[in-house]
Amino acid sequence: MKDPYEVLGVSRTASDSEIKSAYRELVKKYHPDNYANNPLADLASEKMKEINEAYDAITKSRGSGSGGYQSSQSGGYQGYGGSGYAQVRSYINANQLDAAESLLNTAANRDAEWYYLKGQIAYRRGWLDEARQHYQTACAMVPNNYEYQNALRTVQGGYSPYRQTNYQNNGMDTACDICNTLLCLNCLCGGCR
Amino acid sequence: MFGYVRPRQDLLEERDLAAYRAAYCGLCRALGKGYGFAARFLVNYDMTFLYLLRASAAEAAPAGPCWCPARVCGKKTCTLDPGGYETVAACTVVLCVEKLRDDIRDKGFFKGLPARFLNLVFRGAYRRAARRLPAFAALASEQLRALAALEAAESPSIDAVSDAFARIVAGCAGDLEDPALRRPMEQILYQTGRFLYLADALDDLKEDWEKGAYNPLRYRFAVTEGVLSPEDQAYLTQLTDSSVNLAGAALNLLPGRSHHALLENIIYLGLPAVFAAVRAGKFRARAPLFSHRRREREAGTREEAPAKPGNQKKLK
Q1: Structurally, what CATH architecture does the domain formed by B9-299 represent?
Q2: CB atoms within 10 A of CB A19
Q3: B132 touches B89 (CB < 8 A)
Q4: With an 8 Å Cβ cutoff, are B240 and A157 in contact?
């Protein structure tokens, strides 16, 4: 196992509050929500696990309570369609994009979920123009779906959950953006625990 | 290559700027040592970024004085990392020669004469580089042919055409064995390749429009007199911003030990600034081949002589 202090990027003489602060910064950086539908989500998840283990190891060795981040992964969204879509989602999550696309293309009914999943496949391939068009179609068909709106917002390139520094100041376009921001703030303030 | 992948120097710390200068000069030196004097002219910002990215997994290599052909008397500070530069220099030669071959295929006999001449000059260098990286040379050749076919078919998909080019750029990390290192690096390079292709397409749009040449933006958007509407420009900017975000997310996952601030500067600040300049029509994409001094000044690698007391310009 790696040196837990090295993982958190703090010295051995760091105070408890410094350690907690470093830990929170890293959680914010590698939070699973930041890598939703990202082809590197598995690597981010491993990194998150490593950070949690390091924090637990340090807090245990210092005799303080753990209080580490508990993953709030909901296991994906359920109930949009039949088992076909669930299978497509599992292929996408496993980065088997050709298999996911082949299965998706056999669907007779092209509903909002179909376009959303098509957009996810394109996004993971890096085909961002195509992904955006599919997400837009999905959002137009079912306007109030948070998952679709969030995917569209990500591909629109405005707010980036990855940026640790406020390099760019983009304006918010829609009321939906404001809602999403409030939801993110809620998560960061511990509302997702 | 294109020269679009560069840092925002005004927002770099002195230490990082010095590291960038040394990496640029180190690549020039490695090209000269590995592929002959002429290959030094292939040095560019894009491949300097590739070196910094590949070198980020290890501790920063030492820097030392080295001879610079652009400076008759005097030396420059170069990163001394022969092992690190080996693959990057080979990628540089392969990409530049494949681009020349592509130009030969595209242009007529007379217009293609400069490319034919340069292809002859770099023939031996290409052979050595392709021996060093056979899989990458094959990938670059195959994808450029695929790109040429898409262009000949006047493909309206900016994703398809930029994908062919981005795959070549991502191939620069194809030799890495550790997936924890290779996968984020391929993602960064893929998204950077996409950015390069789209920025170049926008930069060339007016010229291509006047010549009637293929440009994917002409077929994807409604173009009037070689200019995109402000809405389409904003849309394209959002697409490139998405690429920047994905590259940045991948950068966070690299087990980086060095150059992290410099790489963040290039991705988060340099790329958007370059695209904004291209949008405004203020970016000079292609420096003339032999304007090494000017390119050095742009890269901040040329140390200007201190101004004489009576000859100082007023700072605005």
Answers
A1: Orthogonal Bundle (1.10)
A2: 21
A3: no
A4: yes
Torsion of CA B135, B171, B219, A104, to 10 degrees: 100
Q: How many whole angstroms separate alpha carbon B149 and alpha carbon B123?
A: 25
Residue B58 per-residue DSSP state: S
Proportion of chain B in helix, strand, coil states, percent, rounded to 5: 70, 5, 30
How many Cβ atoms sit within 10 Å of the Cβ of residue A58?
Answer: 23
Specify the pTM: 0.82
Q: Which residues contact A155 (CB under 8 A, 6 or more apart)?
A: A119, A123, A128, A131, A132, A135, B242
Query: Scanning the structure block, which residue is given the tokens 């990202």?
Result: A38
pLDDT in tens, A13-57: 888 889 999 999 999 888 888 888 888 999 999 999 999 999 999
Q: What is the pLDDT of residue B184?
A: 95
The SS3 of residue A170 is coil
Place of tokens 């004469």: B113
Please indicate if any CB of chain A lies within 8 Å of the CB of B190. yes
Domain boundaries, chain B: 9-299
Buried b (16+ CB within 10 A) or exposed e, B115-126: beebbeebeebb
Pick the residue of B12, B159, B189, B240 with the most A CBs within 10 A to test the interface with A by mutation.
Answer: B159
Contact residues, chain B, for A127 at CB < 8 Å: 159-160, 163
Structure tokens at B77: 């500070």
Q: What is the ipTM of this complex?
A: 0.81
Higher-pLDDT residue of B67 and A65 is B67
| Residue found under tokens 């599919």 | A134
Rounded Cα–Cα distance for residues A132 and A123 (Å): 8
% helix, strand, coil for chain A, step of 5: 65, 0, 35
